[in-house]
Amino acid sequence: MEKNEELFPDELKKLLSGPRNFVLLDVRQPWENEKSALPDSLLFPLNRLVMEKPDIPEDREIIAYCHHGVRSKTALQLLKRHGFKNVKHLAGGIDLYSQTADPSVPRYFK
């Protein structure tokens, strides 16, 4: 993984306050998405991403996220294999985002 492929919570918060020219891809399970999600994100679980390419134009920037940043790192590699070139993942996941960038995003525990 390259350094510029990792996005930190404060950077994502800035991006979310501007024009939305990227796709926010939630690679968690549906039950996790029901508990907490970032606004206007597309739910596409990692196990589905292994076998299926999301219906997103390949030239769009994609920012993948999960609970703690582990699954989104894997998603980054899968997205590249599917032909996407402009991909990043949220370091620390939605949990770190909630703690450091936006406490209004609910935290959850498995």
Please give the domain count. 1
What topology, given as strand order, has the largest sheet? 1-5-4-2-3
Classify the helix fraction into a percent range: 25-40%
CATH topology: Oxidized Rhodanese, domain 1
End-to-end Cα distance = 27 Å
Low-confidence stretches: none
Tally of extended strands? 5
CATH architecture descriptor: 3-Layer(aba) Sandwich
Walk me through this protein's architecture.
The protein has 110 residues and is of the alpha/beta class. It has a single domain (3-100), classed as 3-Layer(aba) Sandwich (Oxidized Rhodanese, domain 1). The chain has five helices and five strands. It has a five-stranded parallel sheet. The longest helix is centred in the last third of the chain and has 12 residues, at 70-81. The chain starts with 5 loop residues before the first strand and ends in a 10-residue tail after the last helix.
